[in-house]
């Protein structure tokens, strides 16, 4: 049976600006509208960064609370996945504070890397600490993997018991400093994952810029899931700015239909990702 395709929409991110993309949702009201449009198009998970009103990236708990409340008002059934990555350079204690809101999911970055001209810092002890916090708060981790070294680290953390199976793993491709979106990278990473993690593992791709379309198409064909949105790309096609996050979701749904891949409903996503892991924790 073909696994239904889970579509995550990263509606804002920490790096994209209004200058880059005039339709970028910044305020809680704008984010709620963007989330509703994305869900209507077929997304079932909202990956959430928040900003202050001036567009500055924020990990302030109150700002997350306002945005989550606004989103829940318009689409109460959608799964919300909080970013614990924040913006590059944000102290770790600030990055994890919004977990007090107990969303269904949160990102867990599996290593330190060069990130363009910056360094995205994730000390091993902080990764362990965050993994423990997620367990304690009953929040499903989405494991963000930017290179093969981070994938090997994931295997170690699973074996040590810091992360429970079945895992939800995401390959982030195309970030300068990590793996590119070359199709050989995804095939190699998937082969390693298949050899080390259980058959109930769910995996997804988030590809940046020009890599987004070919990588998500490859993932759809290989049985993976997909993340799209203004965090990862602002162009729907070469030189054409997307009008909304929902434009990218529509694009995914169209490609999925071409490859006879059903798109997951909100209920199916919750059963596959949240309910299954909670059952394993009991």
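^ structure tokens above, recovered residues below v
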């Amino acid at each position: 049976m073909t696994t239904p395709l889970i579509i995550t929409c990263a509606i804002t991110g920490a790096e994209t600006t209004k200058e880059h993309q005039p339709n970028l949702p910044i305020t809680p009201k704008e984010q709620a509208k963007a989330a509703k449009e994305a869900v209507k198009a077929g997304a079932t998970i909202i990956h959430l960064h928040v900003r202050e009103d001036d567009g500055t990236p924020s990990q302030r708990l109150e700002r997350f609370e306002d945005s989550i409340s606004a989103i829940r008002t318009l689409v109460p059934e959608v799964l919300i996945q909080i970013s614990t990555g924040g913006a590059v350079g944000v102290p770790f204690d600030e990055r994890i504070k919004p977990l007090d809101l107990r969303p269904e999911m949160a990102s867990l970055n599996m290593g330190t890397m060069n990130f363009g001209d910056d360094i995205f810092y994730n000390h091993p002890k902080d990764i362990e600490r965050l993994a423990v916090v997620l367990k304690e708060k009953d929040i499903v981790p989405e494991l963000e993997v930017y290179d093969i070294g981070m994938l090997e680290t994931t295997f170690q953390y699973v074996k040590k018991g810091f992360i429970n199976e079945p895992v939800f793993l995401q390959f982030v491709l195309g970030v300068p400093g990590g793996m590119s979106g070359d199709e050989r990278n995804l095939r190699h990473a998937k082969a390693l994952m298949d050899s080390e993690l259980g058959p109930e593992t769910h995996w997804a791709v988030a590809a940046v810029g020009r890599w987004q379309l070919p990588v998500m198409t490859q993932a759809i064909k290989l049985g993976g899931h997909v993340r799209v949105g203004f965090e990862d790309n602002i162009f729907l096609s070469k030189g054409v700015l997307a009008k909304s996050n929902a434009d990218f979701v529509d694009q995914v749904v169209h490609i999925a239909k071409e490859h006879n891949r059903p798109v997951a409903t909100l209920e199916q996503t919750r059963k596959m990702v949240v309910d299954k892991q909670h059952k394993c924790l009991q």
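The chain has a mean pLDDT of 94.
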